[in-house]
Design goal:
eight-stranded mixed beta sheet; globular; single chain; alpha/beta; two-stranded antiparallel sheet
Length: 485
């Protein structure tokens, strides 16, 4: 095959996401070189979806590299983990100083940190970029979250920002930060996605169980909610799902097994939150909710043995309660995002990343799964105060939570009384009440730790000074070294 055509960029991995991203780049005037380990896929792609477009193929990595303009830009869209490392290992001997490898998969940010270090030592540039929006986003405009070696941004900026989704005319893509920052931001995005989905499911469950509404009725309600502060992609698709009829005219959603899977990205967010001591309770609870759903056989057995309240039906004003549920969903969503940005702030401090939080909100305004009008308010909050510690302290969000609080408490209280599980509504409210409390019962925990383990404690009057009490009068006064529990 001729190597005369010089491509602007190459992409490895011709699954649906890879193919759609290539077509997106070609639509924007870029010549793309396509490669896949199974080379027959390259020929099939060129003969069908990419026919007539500015896409060239390669049957080997060496051929692909030879077809690229310098500095060479290569996107990997392959399964995260060893597959990425395998391709990098094969590419390194073929590349020259200043060439750029871009990992667009769902990689763990710690892998991206390691790869940045390894590629720096070899004189190559590495970018770990979050890509969100699914197949449609990849084809017509994803949200892109690139991080890694900052010198690479100059060489990929135009391509990335041209193919990205646009919100208010601005591309949903900007440089995030050093080493693993891009993939960390994508991980938090995915964690928030887990939370949003679980919150919507809880609203659906309460309306179904407490109010006895049909899928069609609930679909109509979600359609109305999508015209409110909840205007978002996930609310929109929920409306579509609830209104979708199977071939027999019945709602398809009611026929789907109530056991949800996961690919691990929400779990990564929860693990990071635990590692860094950030109370991202809602995302953690949404992961556990999926884990509980997977115990289908046990739950069926337990349902026959364990009894709850005598009724799960709400006796009050249905219309008013539906509005309460909407407000509870909105308030809980605010908490979820507040927690997500708390985790971003902690990671930025730990790794010395200079994250633009308003810019991140803009990146999520379009193209991605959590895209919503709501993110514009987050962007505005950080534009007003770039050093904002928590979204809940912003005037807008403080007022919104205040507006929702009565309804939120009413929904959680009634769900408890009716025996309807609302783990994320509940944990969001518990976080809010904890965060707004000047005093929490951790003083008793510190005393308990000192009693059984001589771990010491601090006094209100002398913070920073650790003391030990001989609580029983027996034993000595020797204390153990202090640690954070």
């Amino acid at each position: 095959m001729s190597t005369e055509v010089k491509a602007d960029i190459a992409l490895i991995g011709l699954a649906v996401m890879g193919q759609n991203l290539i077509l997106n780049m070609a639509d924007h005037g870029y010549t793309v070189c396509a490669y896949n380990r199974t080379t027959s896929k390259v020929d099939d792609f060129l003969g069908n979806e990419a026919k007539g477009k500015s896409v060239v193929g390669a049957h080997s990595l060496a051929e692909m590299v030879a077809k690229l303009k310098k500095p060479r830009r290569i996107i990997l869209l392959v399964k995260a983990g060893s597959a990425v490392d395998g391709f990098i290992e094969q590419l390194v001997p073929l590349l020259e100083k200043g060439d750029i490898i871009i990992d667009g998969g769902n990689s763990e940010y710690t892998d991206t940190q390691r790869r940045c270090k390894e590629m720096r030592e070899k004189g190559l540039l590495f970018v770990g970029s979050g890509v969100s929006g699914g197949e449609e986003g990849a084809r017509y405009g994803p949200s892109l979250m690139p991080g890694g070696h900052a010198e690479a941004w100059l060489h990929i900026k135009d391509i990335f920002q041209n193919i990205a989704a646009k919100a208010e005319g601005e591309p949903c893509c900007d440089w995030v930060g050093d080493d693993g920052a891009g993939h960390f931001v994508k991980m938090v995005h995915n964690g928030i996605e887990y939370g949003d989905m679980q919150l919507i499911c809880e609203a659906y469950h309460v309306m179904k169980e407490a109010l006895g509404l049909s899928p069609q009725e609930m679909g109509d309600i979600f359609e109305q909610w999508n015209k409110s502060e909840l205007d978002s992609f996930l609310i929109e698709i929920t409306k579509d799902i609830l209104q979708f009829k199977d071939s027999d005219g019945k709602a398809l959603v009611e026929k789907i097994l109530d056991s949800a899977g996961q690919k691990g990205t929400g779990k990564w967010t929860a693990i990071s939150a635990l590692d860094y001591g950030v109370p991202v309770t809602l995302i953690g609870e949404s992961v556990f909710a999926r884990c509980l759903s997977s115990l289908k056989d046990e739950r069926v057995q337990a349902s026959k043995l364990l009894s709850g309240p005598p009724t799960s039906k709400y006796e009050g004003d249905k219309k008013a309660f539906i509005e309460d549920i909407r407000m509870a969903l909105y308030a809980s969503k605010i908490i979820s995002y507040a927690q997500g940005f708390m985790l971003l702030r902690e990671a930025a401090s730990k790794f010395n990343w200079k994250l633009n939080y308003g810019g991140i909100a803009l990146m999520w305004r379009g193209g991605c799964i959590i895209r919503s009008v709501f993110l514009g308010n987050i962007k505005a909050a950080f534009e007003k105060n770039a050093s904002l510690n928590n979204l809940l302290l912003d005037d807008f969000f403080r007022a919104e939570i205040g507006k929702c609080q009565g309804s939120w408490r009413k929904v959680v209280a009634n769900a408890v009384l009716l025996g309807i599980p609302t783990p994320c509504f509940s944990t969001a409210l518990a976080f809010f009440d904890g965060y707004r409390s000047a005093v929490l019962p951790a003083n008793l925990i510190q005393a308990q730790r000192d009693y059984f383990g001589a771990h010491t404690y601090e006094l209100l009057e002398k913070p920073g000074t650790f003391v030990h009490t001989n609580w029983t009068g027996r034993g000595g006064n020797v204390s153990s070294s202090s640690y954070n529990a």
